[in-house]
Amino acid sequence: MNRSTLRIALCLLGALAVAACGSQNDAIGGVDLDGNEVQRGGIFDTVISGTEGEAGWVFMFAEGETVRNRDRIVGYARDQSAQLTGRFVGAASSGNTRRASVLWFDKILVTPEPDPDADPDDPPLEPMLETRVRTAVLEIDIDPAKSFSGQVVGDGLNVNLSATYNRRHYERVSGVSLLSGIWENLDPFGGELLRLDFNSQGGFGGRDIDDCNYAGQVYEINRRYNLYAFELASACDEAVDATGLATIEPPPVNPGASPRQRLIAVVPARTNDAVYMIDVSRAVTP
What pTM does this model have? Predict the structure, then answer.
C-alpha cells in the first residue's frame, strides 16, 4: 500500500484531557456558544474549475491561529483523487481576503525509464501511478458563514474556487470523546481494510489489511466547531511527522437502513512530500 496517500488510512491527532459535553448530533446554530458570530472559518462545499477540470471538493479551515491550529487550510476532492494543504499567511487587501501558500497533491501516470541492460524481448514497462506535488498560492474572498470565492495559481495550476458554507457540518460541538471506539474502512463487500481504535482522550492505534500498524492523537481546536487537529505519529511502524485537520461528517438527513458516520482527515507530512488521506466510518447507534 502506498503510504503517501492512505485513502483507507489512519489519522493521528493530539489529545485533549478535557472532553467536550454534548453530542456530535447537536448543531449549535449560527452563533457560537459564547455569542460570537462565526468569523472566517468553516467547512465549505466547493466546486473547482480550470486547469484541473470541474469537480466537487470540500475545504476546511478553523477560525484562526491557535496552539492546535496553525492557521491551516486543507481541501480534498470528493473522489479523493487530489488534496490541497497549506497555511494562511495573513490578510491580503481586506480582512475577509485571505492568502495561503499551498501544496496540491494528485496522482499521475509515469512510464519508468527503460533499463539499458534489459533483454530486448522483455515486454515494455507499464506506466505507474506516482504522487505529484505542486506548489501554488491560494487567495480567497470570504463572506463569513456564507461562501467564499477565489483561485489557486502556480506550477501549472490555474483553478477557480466557488464555495458554499456548510453550516450543518461545521457548527456542531466537537470533543475527542466523540471519537471513542472502533472506526473502519471497508471494501465494497464489507471486508475490513483498516481498523482504528480511539480512546476517550483522542489517542488511537490501528492496523490495516497489509499488517501496517498506525498510531496518533486527536486534539480539539475549538469545541464550538466540528474540526479537529489531526497528528500522525507512526505509519507501518515508522515514525511520521504529519499534522492536519479532521472532521466527523454529520449523519445523513435521510439515513438508509444501515447509516454510517464518517471521520475524514487530510494530514500532510511536515516534509511536504506526502499527504495522508483518512476515511473511516462506523455504524450510527440509535
Answer: 0.82
Q: Where are the domains of the chain?
A: 3-23+170-283, 42-166
Contacts of 97 (CB under 8 A, 6+ apart): 91, 139, 140, 141, 142
Using CA atoms, how far apart are residues 279 and 183, in angstroms rounded to an integer? 9
Segment (H or E) for 168? helix 167-170
42-166 matches 3-23+170-283 in CATH topology: yes
Domain 3-23+170-283 class in CATH: mainly beta
| CATH assignment, 42-166 | 2.40.128
What are the angstrom distances between the C-alpha of 44 and each of 76, 201, 278? 11, 28, 18
More confident residue, 6 or 86: 86
Segment 18-65, tens digit of pLDDT: 222 233 443 333 334 444 455 678 999 999 999 999 999 999 998 766
